[in-house]
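ZP: hey, is the NDP complex queued? I don't see it on the tracker
AM: it wasn't, my bad. submitting now with these inputs:
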Amino acid sequence: MNIILKGSPVANAIKQQVAQRISAVRQTVTLGIIRFGEKPSDLYYEKNIQKTCSSIGMNSQVIVFKKTAFSHVEKKINAIVNAADIHGIVLFSPLPPMIDSRAIYQMIPVEKDIDGLNMHTAGALYTGGSCTFPPCTADACLALLKFYNIDLPGKYCVIIGRSLTVGKPLSLLLLNENATVTICHSHTKQLAQMTRQADILITAIGQARMITAEFVNKNQTVLDVGINADPHRPGCYCGDVDFEQVSPIVKRITPVPGGIGSITTAILCEHTFTAFQQQSTADTK
Ligand code: NDP
């Protein structure tokens, strides 16, 4: 029998814990959300983040850059990221092509870099450093695996996707848990042959329903990170996995929607609260 690994119990447990921690400190904890333009996917994500924040008593502040303001971006971002009353920063990517993304990411102070965007944060993850935050989606995958007690030491994990926000950081998080990890991408040969060998298959591809029966095995746990416009149902979203075809075969699988995506925003809030605590401790030293 296959098991559907829903994201909501994981997200609810995280949110409940963060809400309790916020109410205990009796201070305003603020997440800064930086958005460029009006992309529908960014607006959708932003709405979800704001909803989650208000449900747990966290403040959120949205900073929008419209096209006309692009030339002043660096100066304005500098002021925002260094504002003492903003404790964590999330920045929707990809940034518009005329903006130097790397330069912007570097402007986020490490202690507020709750979505693991700048090089110091990535370096800390690479070297096993503490007190920094892995990208939220990668951390959400790990949170789900832990919540459902899915064993990682010695397990063979195959990740499809090597982005800086999902595939690469997740490979390091899994490695830190003593899993054996392979990353696949668009140049990987005989992809299905590789993915079939995995104990845990994680897809972060951005290709609707690409993963079909030939990519999986019956003992597998499948985490579908993809959020794609569903070609069969206009206005709806689907994952990278053909859920109808794959879910009856594998042992466990996350749905889309209702899987990893719902945990990501909860993790974002958890990271923000931890950042707030670390900043408060640093201030009192
Ligand atoms: P990117 O476009 O940055 O990366 C996609 C990766 O998939 C690349 O490494 C690419 O390979 C690989 N890829 C693309 N096509 C193929 C193919 N046919 N075969 C094998 N590999 C392929 O995407 P992201 O990592 O940002 O996002 C991936 C998916 O996850 C998207 O659907 C996105 O919407 C979703 N997402 C979900 C989040 C959540 O909270 N659930 C948060 C962030 C993203 P190559 O490097 O060679 O180009």
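AM: back. The mean pLDDT is 94.
ZP: great, adding it to the tracker
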